[in-house]
Amino acid sequence: MADAPAPRAGLVARVARSNLFRGTALLWTGMLFSKGVAFLLLMWLARLYDKEEMARLQMCLFIIVLAGEAADLGVSAAYIRFAGAADAGAPPGPGGVARFALLLKLAFGLLVLLPAALLAPEIAARFFPGVAATAPVLASLVAGLAVNLASLAGAIFLTWRMIPRDTAINAGASLVRAALVVAVVLAGAGRAWQPLVYAMAVAPVLALGAAALFLPRGAFRGAPMPKARRREFLAFASRQGPADALGLLAQRAPLFILADSAEAADFSTAVSLSLPLLLFTAAFRNAMAGRVSATAADADVVALARRAMPYLLLVTAGIGAAFLAADPLMALAWSEKYRTAGPALRGLLAALTVLVLDVPLLLLLYYRKRSSLYLAMNLFWVAASGALAFAWGNTHGAAGAAWALAAGLAASRLLGLALLPVFGRPRA
């Protein structure tokens, strides 16, 4: 009698054994380490500086992140896709794709950041009233350009299966940034926040230099991309990049409304406390999205989402526990003066819950190649949460802005579900 066939491995076991999942786990661990070092650093600084000074520091940090994302415009994601196809034998080869991506990075960087640099005095006057902030704004923009270029290096490391090297560079950069900030504080720079910005802006530049030194040989060698492939590259980047940039802008837009105030400090510290769960959600979504790319029908996507749902609900339960303990968590992490940010943390955790439960919808959009609907959803999210944050932030401060973010996100996802039957049908 023939032996019974071995039972098929479960979804989580199969994903855990895949190179994609291991790579995603390593990337997430590296990001968590870097963000963890930054988080501990900010915890220390929050006990030394007033809320207003922390708000200015957090605003400059957001400028760095936003400048890096806005100048990318999906180029790094497009490189990963097209370089992977080139590595499988499609012309022109990964080196030609890398050169085209670098050219776009430099062009987009100058297009986005040069006007912002020229407007630095106006930005400083608008969002940092009454203080000298032009130089910190310029330093933040330069650091944002370095982050933008370094993201291409990270994409090259990922494509060439050198994830540990990229993780080590990012971890080293985070430690260097922490050492520079500690040195500035211990050197007796007073309680001025500007030197802290300069110290933090140096780290991305050093990381870019290290990445350039350790890039694989031949990363930029190869025939140039044909015109048809360049058009495909630009089309893919134009669909993916703006959607991600809009999502980032929506998450931090209230900082512009609450600029240079204690309420802005409450909001930014609450965002920092919720970041580890956000990173885990993004990593889990990426791993699942990679699994979906090989499926053949909507039923497979639905089955995958159903199997993933228990794990998403487990994360949601953890968010619920943090929701109940928001006030003491803020006091424990940032000091007693930030206990008032508990309501803002609750609003951000509500938004994070929507993002966790949103994973099945995004899986379906990825599979159906309907990133344009994802872009429309995030555009609505920015508009709705911005309008609500302007109204609620002026009356309820950081808590109002955080709940506006959650309400705008929920409304955008409901809109996406409503439009899915019409605009989310599978693309031929």
Question: Can you walk through the features of this model?
Answer:
By secondary structure, the chain is mainly α. The protein has 17 helices and no strands. It has two domains: 10-47 and 257-428, no CATH class; 48-252, no CATH class. It is 81% helix and 0% strand. Helix 12 (262-292) crosses helix 17 (371-423).
In short:
By secondary structure, the protein is mainly α.
- Please tally the β strands and state the result: 0
Overall pLDDT, averaged? Answer: 79
Q: How large is the count of helical segments? A: 17
Helix content: over 70%
Query: Biggest sheet, open or closed, and with what strands and sense?
Result: none
Proportion of β residues? under 5%
Overall SS class: mainly alpha
How are helices and strands ordered from N to C? HHHHHHHHHHHHHHHHH
State the shape: globular
Note the topology:
Layout lengths: L10 H7 L1 H28 L4 H20 L4 H13 L6 H25 L1 H8 L6 H26 L3 H24 L7 H20 L13 H26 L1 H4 L4 H31 L5 H27 L1 H9 L7 H16 L1 H10 L2 H53 L5
What tags apply to this protein structure?
428 residues, mainly alpha, 81% helix, globular, disordered N terminus
